[in-house]
From TrEMBL:
This is SET domain-containing protein. Coiled coil: none annotated. InterPro entries: Gramillin-biosynth_MTr (IPR053209), SET_dom (IPR001214), SET_dom_sf (IPR046341), TPR-like_helical_dom_sf (IPR011990), TPR_rpt (IPR019734). CDD domains: SET_SMYD. Signal peptide: none annotated. Residues 176-365 form the SET domain.
Length: 534
């Protein structure tokens, strides 16, 4: 008997040491042995009742379960961690350490309301005053996150102003007025459930996994490709790891498209993606590597590089990630939402006014390029783009005149001449409304060079449309984009309307909200707009 007691005493101190040394896998093993021992003892003791021994055993079991939960939590094995905490709580429902651990797990699972209940309950323990600072920290965080996840009232101003450097702001997951429905473009898509205006926040969601690497522009092509391949491989491993750890993640990943027969795919209920749905029965689906590769091929997103370059972000940093709910958003060459990457979260907001029941689309690749370039990029993604803009431009682009305009571009014809020819052709082809905006966006590079050159403006000014007019039509067709805002702000500066032309500034502010969403302070947005115009 003495020997057994000694063995258990040693096992207990071994498990504790391993936990303190952060050797979580080994500590889980040691605690599991300890937990089995207590389970056996309790069922034996139940037969030869000694209430004191039983109480002592149950206390020890509660502590061992709670410590094993802590180890699982550190390995981000949330379901196992939660299971241990729930068993510990059934033994002693006011156990401080268990409540603290369960609160931390629920916080990691974005279940802020339930986490708050745990921390509140823990704060009632009069014996744990020395832990009150830690507890207050969690309470404050929970209250903030709970409100953010309900209201979407985020503020990323300081971070944007700091050119996206330093620690990103802490974000909570948020699902705005959106739903999943069958799409006319392909398979399923995300749709607005009510009218929203430019800049409205629609979705904030955290990546299942993300992998970043620094690949300097100057790196040789071969090494660049190797670095990207290595990045892709470790990204796949990370997603596999997350999927292995959590039934819910695995089940939700399995709902994603592999790019084939999309029109036959089930349309999942958006509520499944809410953190509160954690407890709903998710199917323990198997996911083999080949299926996962296909899913990642179709749904992974790179952290946006074009806007990163324009905003002066470090464009040597490349990131790839999987954001499950955002994966239901189809591509369009005339998108109405934009994504911003903040830490491991992706933020989706309206880049123009959107009507209820309208499908939300963003650009998978740069859409400020001619039809043939975009066709090639969509092909690399594995689809033929069915958006309105491609359908319209397909017809125009087979036109001999359009081919000539594209050819002139390559042959160094003066940019003013290209703009002039394109505008004249559109007039003759009777291209109207959005069509004009689409084609101007296709040749935006050319337009922007003309509008930014005093010399070209002097030469071609009266033969080509006003910059403001072209900006309006491209914004109408494409929504907000840094490149348009840049040209607009520089134009306003030249005309002396910078900061004092009220109407112009109102327009610029609306475009700014389209760029970063309404989650920026007005004053910060103004500063950013001025920076873009310099
Ligand atoms: C990230 S998924 C988008 C959601 C997908 N429609 C679904 O049902 O799960 C990407 C896939 O959607 C389809 N897709 C997205 N945008 C498209 C577009 N503009 N035209 C045609 N197919 C598109 C392609 O099959 C692409 O591989």
């Amino acid at each position: 008997m003495k020997e057994e007691e000694e063995r258990i005493q040693n096992l207990r101190s071994k498990a504790t040491k391993l936990l303190l040394r952060k050797e979580f896998h080994d500590s889980i093993e040691a605690y599991s042995e300890l937990i089995s021992f207590y389970h056996n003892q309790i069922s034996n003791t139940h037969q030869n009742l000694d209430p004191n021994i039983l109480t002592k055993l149950k206390k020890s079991l509660c502590l061992a379960l709670c410590n094993r939960a802590e180890a699982h939590l550190n390995l981000q094995e949330f379901p196992q961690a939660l299971k241990d905490c729930n068993e510990a709580a059934r033994i002693e429902n006011t156990h401080f350490k268990t409540l603290l651990c369960k609160g931390k797990i629920l916080l990691s699972l974005n279940q802020y309301g339930l986490a708050l209940d745990c921390f509140k309950e823990a704060s009632l323990d009069p014996h744990e005053l020395e832990n009150s600072d830690t507890l207050n920290g969690y309470l404050e965080k929970c209250i903030k996150f709970e409100s953010l996840s309900r209201t979407g009232a985020f503020d990323i101003s300081d971070w944007v102003l700091n050119k996206f450097q330093g620690k990103p702001p802490e974000l909570a997951e948020y699902i705005g007025p959106i739903e999943i429905k069958k799409s006319d473009i392909s398979g399923r898509g995300l749709f607005a459930t009510k009218n929203v205006d430019c800049g409205t926040l629609l979705l904030v969601t955290k990546a299942v996994a993300i992998e970043r690497a620094i690949v300097p522009q100057s790196t040789f092509q071969d090494s660049k490709e190797q670095e990207q391949l290595d990045m892709w491989k470790s990204f796949i491993d990370k997603v596999m790891e997350s999927a292995k750890k959590c039934v819910r993640t695995r089940d939700l990943i399995c709902k994603l498209s592999i790019g084939e027969n999309e029109d036959h795919l089930e349309v999942p209920d958006i509520d499944l993606f809410r953190p509160e749905a954690q407890e709903r029965g998710f199917l323990d689906k198997k996911i083999d590597k080949e299926k996962l590769l296909n899913i990642l091929d179709v749904n992974s997103l790179v952290e946006e590089l074009i806007s990163a370059k324009i905003q002066g972000k470090n464009s040597d940093v490349h990131g790839i990630g999987l954001w499950i709910l955002a994966s239901f958003i189809n591509h369009s060459c005339d998108p109405n939402v934009r994504r911003s990457h903040v830490g491991d979260h992706v933020i989706i907001h309206a880049s123009r006014d959107i009507k209820a029941c309208e499908e939300l689309t963003f650009a998978y690749f740069d859409v400020f390029s001619p039809f043939r370039d975009r066709e090639e990029k969509a092909k690399n993604w594995g689809f033929v783009c069915k958006c309105k803009r491609c359908n319209l431009e397909k017809g125009v682009c087979s036109n001999q005149e359009m081919m000539e305009i594209e050819m002139f571009l390559g042959k160094g014809l003066e940019m003013g001449g290209v703009v002039y020819r394109l505008e004249e052709s559109m007039r003759r082809w009777m291209v109207k409304g959005k069509g004009k905006g689409y084609l101007r966006a296709s040749f935006w590079q050319v337009y922007s060079e003309v509008y930014e050159s005093e010399r070209l403006l002097r030469k071609w000014g009266s033969k080509i449309p006003l910059m403001e007019c072209v900006v309006d039509s491209v914004v109408d067709a494409e929504g907000s984009d840094e490149r348009i805002v840049k040209v607009l702000m520089r134009g306003l500066k030249r005309k002396g309307h910078y900061g004092n032309g009220i109407l112009e500034m109102e327009k610029a502010m609306k475009l700014g909200r389209g760029l970063y969403g309404k989650i920026m302070k007005k004053q910060t947005l103004k500063t950013i707009l001025f920076q873009l115009g310099n």
